[in-house]
Amino acid sequence: MKFSPPDLRTSRGSVLGSAVAGSLLAALLATPSFAQEGEEEVFTLSPFSVTATDEGGYSAAESITGSRIRTRIAELPYAVNVVTNEFLEDFAADSLDDQFAYVSSFAGDEVEGWYQLRGFKQQTQLRNGFTRLGLIDRVTVSRAEVIKGPAAGSYGKINPGGIINIVTKSPSSTPQQEYSVEVGTDDYTRLALATTGPITKDEKLLYRLDSAWLTRDDWGFTGREQFAVSGVLEYNLSENTQFTLEKEYLERAQSRGRSLLPIRDSGGSRDYLRLATELYNYSFLGPDEINDRDIDTTDFRFSHKFSETFSMRAAYNNYDRYFDQFTGYPGEIAIDVDGRDPSEITAEVVMEEGVVRFVEPVNYEIWESGDSFQVDFLKEINTERIQNRLLVTFDKNEQRDIRVRSRLNRNTTSEQQAMLEERFGIDITNKDLRRNSFFNAMQDRRFDVSNPDYSWIDQQSRDLVRETDTFGIVGDNTDPVGIGVIDTNSDRTVDVEGVFIANQMKALDGDLNINMGVRYDEVTTDLYNAPFSLSSSAQSVPSTTSESVSEETYQFGINYKLAEGLMVYGNTSTSFLPSRDFNTVDPVTGEPLAEAQIFENEKGDGMEIGFKGDGFGDKLSFTLAYFDIKREDVVINVSAPDPNNPGETFTYKAQNGLEQATGYEFDFNFQASRALSITGGIGFVDSEIAITDNAVLEGLPVAEIPDYSANIVMKYSIREGKAKGLFYTFGIRDTGESRYSNSGGRETIIQDGYTLFEGGVGYNWGQDRKHTLQLTAKNIFDEEYTRASAKRGDPQRFIFRYRVKM
User: Fold this and answer.
1) Overall average pLDDT of the 27-47 stretch
2) How many CB atoms lie within 10 A of CB 430?
3) Which pLDDT tens digit goes with each residue over 675-691?
4) Which pLDDT band, with edges at 50, 70 and 90, does 171 fall under?
5) Which ranges of 668-798 does DSSP label H, i.e. alpha helix?
6) Mean pLDDT of 388-403
7) What is the pLDDT of residue 35?
8) Can you tell me whether residue 485 is helix, strand or coil?
9) What is the three-state SS of 649-674?
10) What value does the mean pLDDT take over residues 476-480?
């Protein structure tokens, strides 16, 4: 059978109904303050928005993330980093790894949007305050805000390390067009355009259109092609009332290759030695690997200012995301050490004797959709000595996630052989064919390093893996048996309804800022699960389960001005995140459960103290922070004695793990002069797996988390004289070592840290810097480095850009 996308039409009636009803109610309430005919209107910035005009170089003074309303960063009781569009463009930051490379305690992964923040790995981002799962393009980004720690819990479900919020570009009442062409080494090409301005003469109806296309080769067979388009309509009904409709579509086709593999002694010890760094430029997967993603997003936003002290905003978001992957997961490089010292396992030995083991094609498809509605009410209540901003938020979001993964059915049967003969003309008994094709993966699951054979992951292999027995999957069920077997088949819907009440209080002539917030959420999870067993032809019992829980979280923080330009702050916060895991095995008997066990939400708990600076005529700002964060109720694998097979064990999942991270950070922005801007930071993270069932893992750092990161980036622009318009950029980022994996025997393998240099030179000329020519160099010294779980880093690249503004 062939898979086809399932119907993702969720029960959107309640969400859409709430969105429409809320927006209509807000519009009716707003009616009395509509401007009268002939009145001069001055459009003012909503307290729920930030503007790019406050940015100097790569810094910003205000944030909306965390507090949900516009606030000066220096007055917030937690750490916030802002990444501006100017930085993204100057450094041609196309990947998540590059876009946030100069944020302390951050490490990117760029696999479905994964990243590590303050010692915890996560996937979720926000886009204009709504959930987003990876895949962004700089052409649509105005700025990105990184709020650190569980204080980000004002948005509901988050990881305790913090979260990224992407703020997209808004229309302008001034007609503007911008076109850019970028070309570079390794067939790098990027075309982008942006246009904005008024549609009507009264400039009440504005539009914006942004689009970009990118193609690039990376190394070996890897590379990507990406397309993005975004359109925005904004209607300013009056100086106090605004409607915004935004539509965005992104797609990326990518071959990203396999991570470096560990070397294992295939002889007596069976020990893992180290990562096979000699194979840094080696392709394990060949040219036919597939990693295709697309996401379609719709936003509707309405804001209204009832009076000088009372405002509201309502917003609705819908997204549909599809991920199509055909790849493989080779597990190790096997070499018979045969008594040799590990230092004798040289690059030559690896190439001549190494065997890539556990190669197996995997077809993985994910369909996701979500609907969310938020409404915020903001009331200012001021007295002679105290200023209060009271925020009340109601939100509802529903996210559906369907995952289907098929692999090889390792129990080859006469029925399978007959099907192969009939459909593909393949004789499975042909030993030469088995040795040199897809079937070497199915039978022996290995190939020699010196003689790579990629036929195990070609299009025919994908067709075979997708030939499975079916149950509950869209499509026919005509085959009595398949070459492939489905080991993941789940349909999960999480519905969260919450209310958030917060108050920002200023006292002592503005020297004391107190932030308080509480959230109450009701979380309902519905799960359908029906996997096959990989070790037999038997299907696990399909089950449908539903679970509802409630969560109460809080944020409390204080920011106090010690002296002009120097503040001390602290906060304590909690958070929650619905668990993606579930258990299908009885923890006592080891038998399959009749219904999958849905786990409760993970919990986050953290505190942060530090100092903030904002002085020297607003030229210098900094944050010095210490944090202590716990991630509780983590789902872990537990081994137990098998009562039916003495001496054997079975594995089930339980929710009693604990991870924690402590650390120090220092981030700064220094506008040394009108010409020179310097931004940098350093972070030290001590992460730990505190509670787990694996005695080897307990006490070790969390996998893939660098122990430190340090960076500095600058821009120097000549603003007068004969060289006026010339500018330079330069950045250094240094990342510490991290633990490679939690897999058995590999727990203590360490991947090295790395240092990268990048920069460029450019020239602006014409009225309002109409024209720009720029040369950017990425990874200047062509450093060979790995990140996350030993994924190969980007190679050296030079990019030439021409941009014109009209």
Assistant:
1) 38
2) 12
3) 999 999 999 999 999 99
4) very high
5) none
6) 94
7) 33
8) strand
9) EEEEEEEEEEEEEEEEEEEEEEECCC
10) 38
Q: Which of 148, 58, 6 is nearest to 607 (CA)?
A: 148
Mean pLDDT of 394-421: 76
CB 365 within 8 A of CB 4: no
Residue partners of 356: CB distance under 8 A and separation at least 6: 261, 284, 330, 332, 333, 334, 446, 447, 448, 449, 452
- Cα distances from 202 to residues 56, 208, 238, in angstroms, run 31, 17, 11
Cβ(117)–Cβ(124) under 8 Å?
A: no
Q: Tell which phi-psi region holds residue 118, choosing left (phi > 0), alpha (psi between -120 and 50) or beta.
A: left
Residue with tokens 């953290």: 606
Has residue 218 got a pLDDT over 70? yes
- In this prediction, residue 112 carries a pLDDT of 63
CB contact at 8 A, 266 and 345 = no
Among candidate residues 90, 213, 258, the one with its CA nearest the CA of residue 717: 90
Residue 545 has pLDDT above 60, yes or no: yes
- 580 three-state secondary structure: coil
- Residue 390 and residue 506: Cα distance in Å, rounded? 12
- Separation CA 214–CA 573 (nearest Å): 40
Residue 3 has pLDDT above 70, yes or no: no
Q: How many CB atoms lie within 10 A of CB 496?
A: 22
The sign of the dihedral angle between the CA atoms of 412, 415, 417, 419 is: negative
Give the residue, 692 or 484, on which the prediction is more confident.
692
Query: What's the CA gap between 340 and 335, in Å, rounded?
Result: 11
Q: Which amino acid is at 740?
A: Y
| Closest-CA residue to 147 (of 233, 240, 221, 79) | 79
User: Could you report the per-residue pLDDT of 305-341, keeping only the tens digit for each?
Assistant: 999 999 999 999 999 999 999 998 888 999 999 889 9
**Amino acid of residue 556:** F
Tokens encoding 333:
């490089």
- What whole-number distance in Å separates Cα of residue 284 and Cα of residue 278? 13
Tokens representing 307 are 């009076």
Beta strands in 104-156 (DSSP E): 106-108, 115-117, 120-122, 125-127, 130-132, 141-148
Among the listed residues 733, 737, 657, the one whose alpha carbon sits nearest the alpha carbon of residue 693? 657
Residue 650 and residue 642 in contact, taking contact as beta carbons nearer than 8 Å: yes
Q: State the first-to-last Cα distance of the chain, in angstroms, to the nearest integer.
A: 53
8 Å CB contact between 168 and 127: yes
DSSP output for 389-428 = EEEEEEEEEEEEEEEEEEEE-SS--HHHHHHHHHHH---T
> What secondary structure, in 3-state letters, does 713-729 show?
EEEEECCCCCCCCEEEE
Q: Round the average pLDDT of the chain to a whole number and report it.
A: 84
In this predicted structure, what is the pLDDT of residue 406? 86
For residue 90, the 8-state DSSP code is H
pLDDT of residue 533: 46
The pTM is what? 0.87
- Asked whether the beta carbons of 796 and 187 are under 8 A apart, the reply is no
